[in-house]
Amino acid sequence: MSLYGQVVLPRRQIRYLFILSFGLVLFIQFFAIPKVVLSVSPAEILPQLMTRSIASIITLVILVVINVLLYILRQEFDSRQEELQKFVVELDNRVKERTKELEISKQQAEEARQQAEDANQIKSQFLANMSHELRTPLNAILNFTAFVADGVMGDVNEEQEDALRQSISSGKHLLALINDILDVTKIEAGLMDLFIQPVDLSEVINGAVSIGKALAKDKPVQMITEIQEKLPTTYGDKRRLRQVFLNVISNAFKFTKEGSVTIYADATDTHLKVRVTDTGIGIAPENYDMVFESFKQVKNDNLEVVGTGLGMPISKYFVESHQGKMWFESQVGAGTTFFIELPILTEEQANTL
Ligand SMILES: Nc1ncnc2c1ncn2[C@@H]1O[C@H](COP(=O)(O)OP(=O)(O)OP(=O)(O)O)[C@@H](O)[C@H]1O
Ligand SMILES: [Mg+2]
């Protein structure tokens, strides 16, 4: 029972008991003691008068005792009620204090969130500008180096050409990295736009596969393709979809020392399903969460891997921005399979992405 119930209810009951016992006293006074009727002889009335009077007096005494007890009880409850009132006032003050404290901390949290958001926005803007500023001169460097390597600006010997081709390869790697950073920053800042156009899925997937073939060249890794002859045309961002398949295929080769990489693609009228299975190092369950997190790479002692850990989060973003799904299954030492499912979209549907 609540404190209120413990104090106020019995107090009320005491009042009723008081009234009841008072009523009983009155009743005994006026009705219980028999009236003396003169026509009846004293010998007849006396014993009756005696017993009834004694009973009435005993009842009266009991009632008086009960009333005294009730009075004491009432005093007790009165003091308890006072305590209760004090307690309620104190509680009320404490609630007010706590509410004020909560409001202050809510305000502080909101300010901190706003500051973090502003800082993040500044960081994103800075990275986007930086990446943009870096890409332009880097492209110029790559183009001029290619001119020189191709002998457009005069003869180069074999050794010089070799060095120039290595510069180009490193430059391209750097460019890819800058592009990935730019993508992630745009995604985080909510500024990533899709360029919607018809996408011939056969062309996109086979294009990614032929780049994969080049990756398989220097390794004892066999490339197996199970690609449906004619895949449908969908609408979406062609360059971004190509980037997704390339990322997954190049990862499969990157994380496989020997064995095979199988690329499977199949489509219905409504969906495209792609699977890339490798026989590589696999991913331990405790590292599953890292795969789609930006800048996270699983450490592996058996394989020296280059990269920044941006390919998968970017790919997942693009698959989902085309209303698709991307996930993987993996077993350490046995290999990994990445799954990509994309809906076949009409132009109107794609324009709402
Ligand atoms: N096929 C795979 N087999 C084993 N591990 C994989 C595979 N694909 C991805 N991973 C794990 O997920 C991590 C994230 O992949 P992601 O493609 O984002 O980064 P990366 O390939 O290391 O670098 P980047 O793609 O930016 O060059 C990888 O570092 C690797 O640990
Ligand atoms: Mg990668």
Helices and strands in order, then pairings?
Blueprint: H1 3-32, H2 42-149, H3 158-188, E1 197-200, H4 201-216, E2 221-227, E3 233-236, H5 238-254, E4 259-267, E5 271-278, H6 288-291, H7 311-321, E6 325-331, E7 335-343, H8 347-351
Helix pairs in contact: 1-2, 2-3, 3-7, 4-5, 5-7
Magnesium ion binds at residues 247, 251, 307, 311.
Summary tags:
Heat Shock Protein 90, two-stranded antiparallel ribbon, Helix Hairpins, binds adenosine-5'-triphosphate, single chain, elongated, 8 helices, alpha+beta, 14% strand
What does this structure look like?
Helix 1 runs antiparallel to helix 2 (42-149). The longest helix has 108 residues, at 42-149. The strands form two sheets. A five-stranded mixed β-sheet has the order 2-4-5-7-6. The chain has three domains: 3-98; 115-188, Helix Hairpins; 197-351, Heat Shock Protein 90 (2-Layer Sandwich). It is elongated, with a radius of gyration of 45 Å. The model has no long low-confidence stretch (mean pLDDT 86). The chain contains eight helices and seven strands, in the order αααβαββαββααββα. The chain has helices at 3-32, 42-149, 158-188, 201-216, 238-254, 288-291, 311-321, 347-351; strands at 197-200, 221-227, 233-236, 259-267, 271-278, 325-331, 335-343. Helices cover 63% and strands 14% of the residues. A hairpin with a 3-residue loop joins strand 4 and strand 5 (271-278). With 353 residues, the protein is an alpha+beta fold. Adenosine-5'-triphosphate binds next to helix 5 and helix 7.
